[in-house]
């Protein structure tokens, strides 16, 4: 009795050998089939190897968005954090506007940082034209969250929105948390000067937040002297 292609793929993706799983995902993307989509999405939720996960996402992008987007959107509410994170990552790579429906406030504020970061990235990629300020407002609720890497992820997402992010960032100037105010100010600096280092932008922003009387005597007291650098 011949094994069904989707069952053969599932078996290959369950191999103990990461190289074999990588090859199986590559094959699934090279020779896509509609019945592979569920198998690929299921494996994304449990795959331990980064490179295999990346290949699983690539394989999904090789399948019709009509099949992948609904399946991935449903996965963004899974009880498994990795399933949610990988679903948002895959939606951002598929790039289909229908994936925007998954970018909710709950996703943006997900307690799992890997999920939240993936949702932030998906949000700025999938946001419909004209709703950029809406997603910037949602993202601004996460200002000051996490460690340096988490804050950098949010900074990159908001900076990608450019001027549409500025109103939400300026609204954060009166936030009671100095960390939030500093993070917002640093992102404003990056929007004005994309070549500035994030760490230097944060350093200067926190200096201003701590001692605003030392900032430049200019109409905008939140702007610190420019610091050379490239991201």
From TrEMBL:
SUPFAM superfamilies: ARM repeat. It comes from the Bacteria. The lineage of its organism: Bacteria, Bacillati, Actinomycetota, Actinomycetes, Micrococcales. This is HEAT repeat-containing protein. It comes from Agreia bicolorata. InterPro entries: ARM-like, ARM-type_fold. Residues 211-231 are annotated as: Disordered.
